[in-house]
Amino acid sequence: MMRRLRDLDWPLTTARLTLRPGRSEDAVAIWPWYRLPEVQEWTTTLSPTLEAHQEHWDDELESAVVGLHRGRIVAVGKVERQDAWSQSDMRDRAAGQQAEVGWVLDPAAQGRGLGTELAAALLDLAFDGLGVRRVEAACFADNLASRRVMEKIGLRLEGVFRGESLHRSGRWLDGASYALLASEHRARILEP
């Protein structure tokens, strides 16, 4: 049986964050900063009202992780288990073998390494907690802050895809895709 995010030992602590699974009531706590234009610039879901935000948040709870700093939620992340691509006769063995990670940080908490700390913990949750063999992350190529975090935590740039992502501005932007294998993650941990 595949391990689920909610079945792991919680909370998880990093140097400055306490991580736990997202809860429905967290939507209200993150709404004041999640709705800011500088946050919405790069998020995939635009929630124009608290009610719409709550509905979207509740739909994503299975993969949601929150990061608390000094008792306040300053970051949200996701570890979404996915099936790896495979030939049809191998589908059962590819089921749940990879995960996508993502994160959003309160602008008031940016610039202190908390996003990198959260993202690194999400990698650990995917590899060590869920036991997946591959982790992916994607963003608009122009989202340089997110790309820097991906690189800092050891994700490898696998491709920049020209004009493949439709931004809510109406412009087609380049997308960037990063990934890491579990074997690469373990090797990095063992390096002196």
Helix content: 25-40%
- Number of strand elements: 8
Into which percentage range does the β-strand content fall? Answer: 25-35%
CATH class: Alpha Beta
Secondary-structure content class? alpha+beta
Q: In angstroms, what separates the terminal alpha carbons?
A: 34 Å
Radius of gyration: 16 Å
Average the pLDDT over all residues and give the rounded result: 94
Q: How is the CATH topology named?
A: Aminopeptidase
The largest sheet has its strands arranged as: 1-2-3-4-5-6-8-7
Output the CATH homologous superfamily: Gcn5-related N-acetyltransferase (GNAT)
> How does CATH name the architecture?
3-Layer(aba) Sandwich
The SSE order reads EEHHHEEHEHEHEEH
Number of domains: 1
Can you tell me the residue ranges where pLDDT is under 50 for at least 5 consecutive residues?
none
Put simply, the count of helices is: 7
- The coarse silhouette is globular
Largest sheet: 8 strands, mixed
Question: How does this structure look, described?
Answer:
The protein is of the alpha+beta class. It has a single domain, classed as Gcn5-related N-acetyltransferase (GNAT) (Aminopeptidase, 3-Layer(aba) Sandwich). It has helices at 26-34, 37-40, 50-59, 91-94, 114-129, 144-152, 182-190; strands at residues 12-13, 18-21, 64-69, 72-82, 98-105, 134-140, 156-166, 172-181. It has an eight-stranded mixed sheet, with helices on both faces. β7 and β8 (172-181) form a beta hairpin. The radius of gyration is 16 Å and the shape is globular. Pfam families: Acetyltransf_3. It comes from Brachybacterium faecium (strain ATCC 43885 / DSM 4810 / JCM 11609 / LMG 19847 / NBRC 14762 / NCIMB 9860 / 6-10). Residues 17-174 form the N-acetyltransferase domain. One of its GO terms (cellular component) is ribosome.
